[in-house]
Amino acid sequence: MREVKTGVWHWEAPHPEWKPGQAWGPDVSSYAIEAEDRLLLFDPLAVSGEIQEFAAGRETAIVLTCPWHRRDAISLAERLGAPIYVPPPDPPDPDPVKGHVFSAGDRLPIGVEAFPGMESNDLTLWVESRRALVAGDTLIDRGRGLEVWFDGAAEVRGVPVEQIREGLLQLLELPVELVLPTHAAPTDRAALERALSQ
């Protein structure tokens, strides 16, 4: 675990469902961000004892970028007594994550604003107090730098890729300094600009 910027921590852990040949690497990223007197844990997996101790006794929330990034969220929420904020589940999910459901356009009461991502429930999350953008599966680095994860498709769930890309361009209107993808290491605004111009 390392502090990327004051009040922003990053760590990686092996994804428990990764198999060779998948389009993303075996390790995924999680983040802890101090925002508005709270500790926010984004897509947490293998949270260190240090972060759990830091969370103990203070207001903490768990935020998922997409519902399938449940990782350690449920057990961690129980241990910390923390609420979970989660985008809508994929139908028909027989066991959706229980929590406060949010969608693109929502401002969460924990200092996070939800913006569109690659899918209606794979969102990009803006933490204004840290000028940080957290991205789940929308932005990924497969060894060529940060890119939007379209995998050569012309559409995603019936939505044309160009329409999705257009929606993502509004992210450049934000004063983003730090980009925190869950399928890559933390990066900067220049990498976001390159990814959205491809």
Largest sheet composition: 7 strands, mixed
What characteristic shape results from the CA principal axes? globular
Tally of strands: 16
Strand line-up in the sheet with most strands: 1-2-3-4-5-6-7
Q: What ranges have pLDDT less than 50 throughout 5 or more consecutive residues?
A: none
Q: Structural class, from secondary structure content?
A: alpha+beta
**Radius of gyration, in angstroms, nearest whole number:** 16 Å
Number of helices: 4
Q: Helical residue percent?
A: 10-25%
Q: Can you give the mean pLDDT?
A: 92
Indicate the proportion of strand residues: 35-45%
Secondary-structure element series? EEEEHEHEEEEEEEEEHEEH
Ends apart, CA distance between termini: 31 Å
Description of the molecule:
This protein is α+β, with helices and mostly antiparallel strands. It is built from four helices and 16 strands. A seven-stranded mixed β-sheet has the order 1-2-3-4-5-6-7, with helices on one face. Strands 8, 9, 10, 11, 12, 15 and 16 form a seven-stranded mixed β-sheet that branches. Strand 15 and strand 16 form a beta hairpin. The longest helix has 9 residues, at 189-197. The protein is globular. 39% of the residues are buried.
Question: Could you list some keywords that capture this structure?
Answer:
single chain, 198 residues, alpha+beta, 7-stranded mixed β-sheet, 4 helices, 16 strands, globular
Layout of secondary structure:
Elements: E1 2-5, E2 8-14, E3 27-35, E4 38-42, H1 49-55, E5 60-63, H2 73-80, E6 84-86, E7 100-101, E8 107-108, E9 112-119, E10 122-127, E11 132-141, E12 146-148, E13 155-156, E14 159-160, H3 161-168, E15 178-183, E16 187-188, H4 189-197
Parallel strand pairs: 4-5, 5-6, 6-7, 11-15
Antiparallel strand pairs: 1-2, 2-3, 3-4, 8-9, 9-10, 10-11, 11-12, 13-14, 15-16
